[in-house]
Structure formats: C-alpha cells, structure tokens
Amino acid sequence: xxxxxxxxxxxxxxxxxxxxxxxxxxxxxxxxxxxxxxxxxxxxxxxxxxxxxxxxxxxxxxxxxxxxxxxxxxxxxxxxxxxxxxxxxxxxxxxxxxxxxxxxxxxxxxxxxxxxxxxxxxxxxxxxxxxxxxxxxxxxxxxxxxxxxxxxxxxxxxxxxxxxxxxxxxxxxxxxxxxxxxxxxxxxxxxxxxxxxxxxxxx
Length: 203
Prior knowledge:
By secondary structure, the protein is mainly alpha-helical. It has one domain. The chain is built from 6 helices and no strands. Helix 1 crosses helix 2 and helix 5 runs antiparallel to helix 6. The termini are far apart.
C-alpha cells in the first residue's frame, strides 16, 4: 500500500501548503511562506526536524516501492491501510479548516512584528495548534499504511520538531503578543489534543 501513502502525502502538501499559499497570495499579495533567514536557533532546529520528518514520510513509501525498504512484519494489511487512510483524510480536513479559520493570519514561521489576532474559534476552540495536530496525525497515518522503521522515525522527528516550535517559539511569542488573553486560552485548551498540554503559567 505504499502508493496510497505517497499519494496522500502529495495531496497533503498540495492542499495544505500549495493551495493555501496561493489563496493567501491572491487575497493579500503574500504567500505566507516566510523565508528561513533571520530566524532564531530554536525555530531553525524545529524547521530542520520537521523537514526530516517530511522527507522520511515521503521516502518510506518510495523505498518500499523500490524494494529497498522492508515493511515491519505483522503490522501491514488492509485494516491498517483503511484506518491510516481515514486518519490522513481527517488530518487534511482539519488542517484546511484551521487554515480557513486563521485567514490571512496563516503563515509559516513567526513574524515578531505581525499584528495578527488571537484565533480561538473553530478547531482552535479544542486545540491551540490544530494544523500541527493534523501534521502529527498525517505522519501517524503514514506509519500505519507503510509500517517501516523510517515511518516511525518520521513521526518521532515531527513530534520533536513541533514540540520545539510550539514550546520555544510560538507560545512565548503569543504570550508576549496577547498577554492575559492567551494565558486564559492556553489554560483551558490543549496543545495538540483536547485538554492535553494545557499551558501552566502563573496568574
């Protein structure tokens, strides 16, 4: 089933990054894809981990198709493929819903001088980073559809990169930008899953 995983990965990239960037460019004149130059060390490290995870998610099915990477015995099958495909479809839908809710505030990376509003509606009412939740679910789905060591490493790299991005970069920025409004929001809302990873900050 590696062709299914590869096709879903490409659809995800096309819709979540390609289509969203195009729509944002048409409405604002900016794609929302911020260049890596000038970013903090933590953000650069998070970007690198995310890129590694993405490349491994794409590479795992390609290597299986080429016969160069074995699947983990006993884990592959029709059931795992169906579950993984449904999870991946849900991840795409979640990411697109969250991006739509963000509107022109969506971008890659953090821009310190931006004046973006604090979005707490739609998927953001349940988790603080629903696009990242979708990314993690998509990577998990690849590991189910194509159960290989590389797919497991891809998921681990995505988790590490997104934890670093949110904890060291985005959440400090949002606390600085929105103050008590973000504190109150973060106290009641999980980071990637509802109720899990609620921010513990002093009142």
